[in-house]
């Protein structure tokens, strides 16, 4: 996950979020030093950096909320046995979508064949 912020000159700066299995932090994947500031949720991490900016020239000011049309991975379920087909880049499965209010709707779920996990999306 990447957070995009602006510096004093309105230049975009991308901050990469890392997850170690229990905590979120900002840092580079190749860094030899472990991150100093870690929180169990992204919300807590962002709230920390709003109150304590990562640098004097970089401040997190305004959140851009997830658009309503952008669906969450956690609201979809499928099983390998329900595979409908595949192509060069994706496989398609019969699955279920948990809609707002709890209603379950049968859907086709397209899964990329590249190695991406839920915390990367």
From TrEMBL:
InterPro entries, sorted: SH2_dom_sf
Gene3D superfamilies linked: Phosphorylase Kinase, domain 1 (3.30.200.20)
Protein name: Tyrosine kinase
Listed SUPFAM superfamilies: SH2 domain
Domain of life per record: Eukaryota
């Amino acid at each position: 996950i990447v957070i995009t912020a602006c510096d004093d000159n309105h230049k975009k700066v991308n901050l990469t979020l890392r997850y170690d299995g229990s905590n979120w932090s900002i840092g580079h994947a190749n860094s030899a030093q472990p991150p100093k500031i870690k929180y169990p949720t992204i919300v807590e991490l962002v709230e920390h950096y709003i109150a304590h900016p990562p640098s004097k020239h970089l401040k997190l000011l305004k959140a851009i909320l997830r658009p309503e049309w952008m669906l969450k991975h956690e609201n979809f379920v499928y099983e390998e046995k329900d595979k409908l087909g595949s192509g060069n880049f994706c496989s398609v499965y019969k699955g279920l979508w948990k809609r707002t209010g709890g209603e379950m709707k049968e859907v086709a779920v397209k899964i990329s064949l590249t190695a991406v996990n839920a915390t990367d999306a």
